[in-house]
C-alpha cells in the first residue's frame, strides 16, 4: 500500500487523533497517565468490554443487534461462579458451563431473529429482561469462595499479559481474520447491506447471523465468568447491569453503522479504547462518576453526528463545482441521480 | 400556453441523460411522450417533478419561468405527476390520501366533513367506484390510480403527467382510465402521457414527442398519422450486435420446465436450449418477474425444473445456483447491488468460497478473476476496489452479470429480469452484446423478461408472451416483430375497442 493510501485509511479513523489528544491531555493534567502500569490497567479494565463488543460489532455489521448481552454476562458469571463455589468446579468445567449458558441464550436469540424473523430489537430486549431473571433465580445470594482453579481465569498471566487482555486479543485476532480473510467475512457485510440481494446471491442469510448470535452469547457469558474470577465474587442482580449499553456505545463510537453493512474491527477496538481511556483519565483527574457518564453519552452523540455528517460533507464537496445555482438541494440530488437514469 | 420546456439539460456523472430537450404542451391537449428505456423520458418527468435541478434550460408553467424546481415549487406551479409507483399510503383511507399534506382545516383541526365532500366530488368526476372511507390498500390497482389522480387534481394542476399509467391495469381498467383522460382533456388540462403502447397513442394522443438518447427525435401532430408512421418515428437505427448463436434443434434443452405453478402463475411449460436467448414478454403485472423468481427458487412453486437434464430439487436460490441456474434481478438497487461494497465484492461474492483455500480468501486469485471478468464484459472503470455505487447503471448491471458469468461458477442457465432497466442507450447495446457473447461462447441458455417490445426483438431468438400468469403465444424467426408482440399481449384489445366505443 502506498503512503497516501495508508494515510487515507488513517483518515477513516478520527478516533486515532482523538485518543492521542486525550492521552496527551490526561498526561499533562495528572503526570501519571502514560505509564505501563496505568495503560495495562486500562487494558485489563476494558478487556471484558472488548471480548463482547467485537462479536456484537459483527452482528451489527450483518444488520442485527443483541441487547441481551448484559444479562447473558450475568448468567455466565453466575453459572461459572455457582459451579466454582458450590461444587468446587475447576477452570475448564466452569468455563464450559458459562459458554454453554451463553450459547443457549444466543441460540434462542438467533432462532427467533434469524429463523422466525422477529425484530432483533424486540427479541433481545425480551431476553435481556428474562435472562436477568433466570440469573437471579439461580443465585439469589452473592456467590463467593471460588477455588484456585477458577481464579486462574481472571488472574493468570498469558505471554506476559493479564489473562483477560490475552483473551480479548485472541478474540480480536480471530474475529478480524474471519471478517477480512474469509468469504464469510464478506457475507457478513453483504447481509448487512442488503439481506435480499445476499439471499439471491446464494449467501446463507440465516446461518451466518445465527452463528454470530451464538458467538456473541458465548463470549458475553465468558466475559461475565472472567469478571467473576477477577472479582472473586458474583452478585446476580448487578453483574453486567447496563453492560449492553456500554457494548453498543463502543460499537457505535467505533464507527459501525446501526443500519448494517459498514464498520471495521479496528474502529471497534478504538471505540473500546476510547471509552476505557475516557473513564480512566477522568477518574485520575478526579471527575465524579456521574459526570463521567455524561461525557460517555456526549461522546456517543458526537460520534454519531460525525458519522452522519461525513458522507454528506463529502457529497457536498463533490457536487459543488457544477451546482452553483441551487446549492441547498445539492446534497439530496446525488442519491436521486442514480435512480433518475431510466 | 401551459407547459413549455426549453433546452433542458441534465447529466449524471458524465452520462448525458437530457441534452437540450424542448417540449410544449398546450391546454386541452394529450401529448404522448415516447421513446425506449434510457431515452430520457423518466429523467424529463423527474426534472418537472423537482427531483433534481437541471444543468441548463428552463421550465415555463402558466407564464412563469423556472431554472429548476423543488418538489414543492413543482406542485405550486401546477404540475401533477402520476408515477408508475404510486405515492399512496396503503394503510390510510381514500380521503386521507387525497388530502395528505394539504388537509382542509379550521383552527388547526382537520375539517373532515369538508374533506369528505371534496373527495367524493373528485372521485365522482373521475368515475371512481370506491368510497372515500375505503382503505387504499384494499383497492384494486385501477381504483388506486384514480385515487392518485384525485389527489393530483385536488391541488388544481394545469399539467397532468401520467407515467405509463396502464402498465399495471387490466384491460377493463384501461378503458375506464382512457375515458377519464379524455374527460380531463375536455376540461382544459394539459396532459402528458408516457407509454410504450402504440394503441394508446393512436386512441388518445393529439401530438407526440419521441425522445432518443436524451434529445427530441421527433415532435409532431398525430393528425392523419398511421400506426406505421408512429412505429417509424420510434424505431431506432439498427445496431451491429454479434450474430445470434446457432441453436441446434437436436441439442437437449439446457432448461426444461414443466407444470410450473404458483400463486397467480401457470401452469407454465418451457424449454431453452444451450446458446439460445428466449425473451419473456408481458405487461407489468403479467407475472414475468414472479415466473423468473419461481424458477430461481425465490418464491414457492410446484412443477419440475431440470437444468442440463438433472432435476432441481429444493426450491431455494442456493439449490438453483448449485444446479447452474442464476438470476440477475430486475430491482437492481434492492435485490442486486451491494452499493457500498467494492466492485470486486459485488462481482465475486458467490465465487469467493470456490476461490478460497483452507477457508481463506486468495486475494490474488480474486483479482485475477475480476480482471478477466471485467475485460470480458467490458466493465468500465475496471477498478476492483471502487464501491459499486460509483459505477454507472450499465456498469452496475455488468457487475451483476459478472456475478454469475465469471468462469468460476458453473452457470449454464441465466435468468435476466429487465436487463436494461435504468441504463442509457450505449450501455443497453453493450449489455445486449455481452448477453449475445455469453450465449454464443459459453453456450449459456438465457431467459430474459422485458416490458419493452423493442428489447425482445433486438435480443431474443424466440419470444414467449405472457398474460395474467400464463404463456399465451410464442413467436420466433420472421414472425417475431414489435407489432406481433403488441398484438399478442393485447389479444383482448378488440374487446377493449368495443368497450370504448
From TrEMBL, chain A:
Entries under Pfam families matching the protein: BPD_transp_2 (PF02653)
The keyword Cell membrane appears for this protein: yes
Topology in the lipid bilayer: Multi-pass membrane protein
Key words, A-Z: Cell membrane, Membrane, Transmembrane, Transmembrane helix
Presence of the UniProt keyword Cytoplasm in the record: no
Positions of transmembrane segments: 12-34, 46-65, 77-101, 107-131, 165-189, 209-233, 245-278, 290-310
Alphabetical list of InterPro entries matching this protein: ABC_transp_permease
Superkingdom of origin: Bacteria
Name this protein carries in UniProt: ABC transporter permease
Organism of derivation: Nocardioides ginsengisoli
Automatic annotation (TrEMBL), chain B:
Domain ABC transporter: residue ranges: 3-238, 247-493
GO MF term list: ATP binding
Pfam entry (one): ABC_tran
Lineage: superkingdom: Bacteria
Record key words, sorted: ATP-binding, Nucleotide-binding, Repeat, Transport
PANTHER family with a match to the protein in the record: CARBOHYDRATE TRANSPORT ATP-BINDING PROTEIN MG119-RELATED, GALACTOFURANOSE TRANSPORTER ATP-BINDING PROTEIN YTFR
Protein name: Sugar ABC transporter ATP-binding protein
The species this protein was found in: Nocardioides ginsengisoli
Amino acid at each position: 500500500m502506498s503512503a497516501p493510501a495508508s494515510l487515507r485509511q488513517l483518515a477513516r479513523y478520527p478516533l486515532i487523533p482523538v485518543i492521542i489528544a486525550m492521552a496527551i491531555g490526561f498526561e499533562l493534567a495528572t503526570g501519571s497517565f502514560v505509564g505501563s502500569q496505568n495503560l495495562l490497567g486500562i487494558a485489563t479494565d476494558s478487556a471484558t468490554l472488548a471480548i463482547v463488543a467485537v462479536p456484537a460489532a459483527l452482528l451489527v455489521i450483518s444488520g442485527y443487534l443483541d441487547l441481551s448481552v448484559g444479562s447473558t454476562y450475568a448468567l455466565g458469571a453466575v453459572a461459572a461462579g455457582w459451579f466454582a463455589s458450590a461444587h468446587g468446579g475447576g477452570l475448564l468445567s466452569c468455563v464450559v458451563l458459562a459458554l454453554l449458558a451463553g450459547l443457549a441464550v444466543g441460540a434462542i436469540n438467533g432462532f427467533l431473529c434469524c429463523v422466525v424473523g422477529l425484530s432483533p430489537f424486540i427479541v433481545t430486549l425480551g431476553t435481556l429482561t428474562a435472562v436477568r431473571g433466570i440469573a437471579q433465580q439461580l443465585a439469589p445470594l452473592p456467590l463467593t469462595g471460588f477455588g484456585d482453579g477458577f481464579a486462574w481465569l481472571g488472574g493468570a498471566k498469558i505471554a506476559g499479559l493479564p489473562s483477560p487482555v490475552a483473551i480479548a486479543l485472541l478474540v480480536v485476532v480471530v474475529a478480524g481474520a474471519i471478517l477480512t480473510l474469509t468469504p464469510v467475512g464478506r457475507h457478513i457485510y453483504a447481509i448487512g447491506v442488503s439481506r435480499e440481494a445476499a439471499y439471491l446471491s446464494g449467501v446463507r442469510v440465516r446461518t451466518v447471523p445465527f452463528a454470530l448470535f451464538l458467538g456473541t452469547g458465548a463470549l458475553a457469558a465468558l466475559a461475565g465468568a472472567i469478571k467473576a474470577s477477577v472479582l472473586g465474587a458474583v452478585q446476580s442482580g448487578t453483574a453486567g447491569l447496563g453492560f449492553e449499553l456500554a457494548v453498543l456505545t463502543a460499537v457505535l463510537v467505533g464507527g459501525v453503522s446501526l443500519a448494517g453493512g459498514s464498520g471495521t474491527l479496528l474502529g471497534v477496538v478504538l471505540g473500546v479504547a476510547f471509552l476505557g481511556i475516557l473513564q480512566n483519565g477522568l477518574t485520575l483527574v478526579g471527575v465524579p462518576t456521574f459526570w463521567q457518564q455524561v461525557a460517555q453519552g456526549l461522546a456517543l452523540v458526537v460520534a454519531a453526528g460525525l458519522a452522519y455528517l461525513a458522507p454528506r460533507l463529502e457529497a457536498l464537496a463533490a457536487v459543488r463545482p457544477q451546482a452553483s445555482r441551487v446549492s441547498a438541494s445539492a446534497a439530496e440530488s446525488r442519491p436521486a441521480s442514480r435512480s433518475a437514469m431510466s | 400556453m401551459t407547459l413549455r420546456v426549453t433546452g433542458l439539460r441534465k447529466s449524471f456523472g458524465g452520462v448525458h441523460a437530457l441534452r437540450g430537450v424542448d417540449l410544449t404542451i398546450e391546454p386541452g391537449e394529450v401529448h404522448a411522450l415516447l421513446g425506449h428505456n434510457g431515452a430520457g423520458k423518466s429523467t424529463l418527468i423527474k426534472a418537472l417533478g423537482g427531483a433534481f435541478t437541471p444543468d441548463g434550460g428552463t421550465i415555463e408553467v402558466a407564464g412563469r419561468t423556472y431554472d429548476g424546481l423543488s418538489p414543492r415549487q413543482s406542485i405550486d406551479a401546477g404540475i401533477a405527476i402520476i408515477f408508475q409507483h404510486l405515492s399512496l399510503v396503503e394503510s390510510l383511507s381514500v380521503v386521507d390520501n387525497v388530502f395528505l399534506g394539504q388537509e382542509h382545516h379550521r383552527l388547526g383541526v382537520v375539517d373532515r366533513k369538508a374533506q369528505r365532500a371534496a373527495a367524493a366530488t373528485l372521485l365522482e368526476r373521475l368515475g371512481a367506484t370506491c368510497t372515500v372511507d375505503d382503505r387504499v390498500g384494499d383497492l384494486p390497482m385501477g381504483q388506486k390510480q384514480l385515487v392518485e389522480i384525485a389527489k393530483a387534481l385536488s391541488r388544481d394542476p394545469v399539467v397532468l403527467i401520467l407515467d405509463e399509467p396502464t402498465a399495471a391495469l387490466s384491460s377493463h381498467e384501461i378503458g375506464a382510465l382512457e375515458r377519464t383522460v379524455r374527460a380531463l382533456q375536455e376540461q382544459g388540462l394539459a396532459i402528458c402521457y408516457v407509454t410504450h403502447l402504440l394503441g394508446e397513442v393512436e386512441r388518445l394522443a393529439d401530438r407526440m414527442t419521441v425522445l432518443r438518447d436524451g434529445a427530441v427525435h421527433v415532435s409532431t401532430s398525430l393528425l392523419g398519422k398511421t400506426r406505421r408512421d408512429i412505429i417509424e418515428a420510434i424505431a431506432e437505427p439498427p445496431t451491429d450486435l454479434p450474430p445470434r448463436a446457432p441453436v441446434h434443434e437436436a441439442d437437449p434443452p439446457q432448461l426444461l420446465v414443466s407444470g410450473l405453478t404458483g400463486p397467480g402463475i401457470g401452469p407454465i411449460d418451457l424449454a431453452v436450449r444451450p446458446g439460445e436467448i428466449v425473451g419473456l414478454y408481458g405487461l407489468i403485472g403479467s407475472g414475468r418477474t414472479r415466473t423468473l423468481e419461481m424458477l430461481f427458487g425465490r418464491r414457492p412453486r410446484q412443477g419440475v425444473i431440470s437444468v442440463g437434464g438433472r432435476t432441481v430439487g429444493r426450491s431455494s436460490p442456493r439449490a438453483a445456483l448449485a444446479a447452474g441456474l442464476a438470476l440477475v434481478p430486475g430491482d437492481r438497487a434492492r435485490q442486486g447491488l451491494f452499493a457500498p461494497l467494492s466492485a470486486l465484492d459485488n462481482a465475486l461474492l458467490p465465487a469467493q468460497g470456490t476461490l478460497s483455500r483452507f477457508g481463506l480468501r486468495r486475494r490474488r486469485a480474486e483479482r485475477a478473476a475480476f480482471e478477466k471478468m471485467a475485460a470480458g464484459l467490458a466493465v468500465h472503470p475496471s477498478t476492483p476496489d471502487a464501491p459499486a455505487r460509483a459505477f454507472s447503471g450499465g456498469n452496475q448491471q455488468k457487475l451483476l452479470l459478472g456475478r454469475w458469468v465469471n468462469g468460476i461458477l458453473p452457470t449454464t442457465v441465466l435468468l435476466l429480469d429487465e436487463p436494461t432497466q435504468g441504463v442509457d442507450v450505449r450501455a443497453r447495446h453493450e449489455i445486449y452484446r455481452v448477453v449475445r457473447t455469453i450465449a454464443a461462447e459459453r453456450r449459456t441458455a438465457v431467459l430474459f423478461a422485458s416490458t419493452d417490445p423493442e428489447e425482445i426483438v433486438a435480443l431474443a431468438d424466440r419470444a414467449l408472451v405472457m398474460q395474467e400468469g400464463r404463456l399465451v403465444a410464442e413467436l420466433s424467426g420472421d414472425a417475431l416483430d414489435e407489432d406481433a408482440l403488441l398484438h399478442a399481449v393485447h389479444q383482448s384489445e378488440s374487446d377493449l375497442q368495443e368497450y370504448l366505443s
